[in-house]
Structure formats: C-alpha cells, structure tokens
Recover the amino acids of this structure.
C-alpha cells in the first residue's frame, strides 16, 4: 500500500509519498537512488517551496551527508537554485532548467502521483469532509493503464471536485474516476446494503482528507450517525 507521508513545517504542510511495491513507484526507484529520488521529487513537485539544508534534512528524514551531497550535485547541475535569505542559504526548483518539465513528468507519473492529487484537492473551493483513493493504487497493484479511483464524502459537489482536479489526468497520464457522496447518501447506501459501497469501504485506502477514525464514525449505525461530523 502506498502511504502519504505528511510533514508539517511551521507555516506550511507538504506531502510526499512513501515508496511501495506499486509498479508505478518501481519506475522511479529504477531511475534514481533513494535519496536522490526523495530530494528531486520534493523540489520538482513543489516548485513554489524553498528549503534551507537542515530543514530539508528533517523533512526527508535522510542522512545529513547524503542529502547535502545530492543538493550540491543538483545545484551544480542547475536543476535547483540557491539564494541567500538572511544567514541561510535556501534552495528551490529551477523551473527554467532544460529538463525540469521532463523531471516533473516522470515524478508525477510515478512516485508523485498521489502527492499531486492531494495538492489538487487542497485547492478545492469547497471543504472536503473525507477523500480517499481506493482500488489498484491503494492496493499497490496498479499497472500502466490503471485508473485512479477517488471517492469524496461530504458537503461538496462533483463539479467542485472536477474543477480542482481538471489537470490531474493530463499531467499524470492517468484517468481519474471520481465518486462524490453526501453523508446522507452514504448512510442510505449503507443501510440498503449497497454491495459496491461495502466493497470499497472494506478495501485498502489512501486517505487524502480524513482518516480511519472519521470513516469509522461515518459507518457506525445509529440515528445520529452524522451529527457533528462535518
């Protein structure tokens, strides 16, 4: 199962994917070593972010020497740039680099796919109650043509979710299958023993909003099932 690693830095929150046996992640693992893959994906998938060295080391949870070597090499190659902010040297992705678009394309189609979808959903104009990926990507069995299956539960609309994910399929070369349910609709389907909903809820998941605890509350039977949840 591919899990999203959430890292909170004062004033911001960034997500990077943990590696798994998913064939799409293996592409990235085959092309780059572990530390270089982590450093590269962090920069090219978050071009608006800048990091100073110690911050990046804590963020990636990798050895200081290994991260420092990769940052030095990538900076020397012009893939990332450095600038001084006060007493600190900050690094950021060089979006003008000749191969920046190609690197972003590689990571968005492999190790960064979930990260991109998570960022797109965070830009949604409506607040999402719960969102998770299910199916092949959550199980770690996705192949080249596997769609990404997303379910959103809460007080939002299909139009709102589509609006914030409109570029996802183009950038990742993956079809995005979206299901949007209000909490009352989910309750009705659970009570009516909707087989498909029960299969999805019993399957593996990658949570992008909410988590197992919130889902347990949603799927608990009772008259006040959704009272105070969203």
């Amino acid at each position: 199962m591919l899990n999203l690693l959430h890292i909170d830095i004062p004033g911001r929150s960034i997500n990077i994917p943990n590696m798994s046996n998913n064939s799409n992640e293996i592409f990235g693992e085959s092309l780059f070593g572990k530390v270089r893959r982590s450093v590269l994906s962090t920069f090219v998938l978050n071009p608006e972010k800048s990091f100073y060295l110690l911050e990046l080391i804590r963020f990636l949870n990798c050895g200081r020497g290994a991260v420092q070597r990769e940052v030095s090499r990538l900076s020397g190659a012009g893939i990332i740039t450095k600038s001084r902010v006060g007493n600190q040297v900050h690094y950021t992705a060089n979006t003008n680099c000749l191969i920046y678009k190609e690197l972003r394309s590689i990571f968005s189609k492999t190790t960064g796919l979930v990260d991109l979808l998570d960022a797109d959903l965070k830009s949604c104009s409506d607040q999402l109650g719960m969102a998770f990926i299910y199916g092949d990507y959550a199980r770690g069995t996705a192949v080249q043509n596997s769609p990404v299956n997303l379910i959103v539960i809460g007080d939002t609309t299909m139009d709102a979710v589509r609006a914030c994910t409109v570029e996802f399929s183009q950038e990742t070369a993956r079809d995005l299958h979206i299901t949007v349910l209000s909490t009352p609709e989910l309750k009705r389907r659970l009570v009516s023993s909707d087989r498909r909903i029960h299969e999805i809820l019993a399957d593996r998941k990658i949570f992008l909003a909410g988590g197992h605890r919130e889902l347990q509350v949603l799927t608990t039977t009772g008259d006040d099932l959704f009272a105070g949840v969203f």
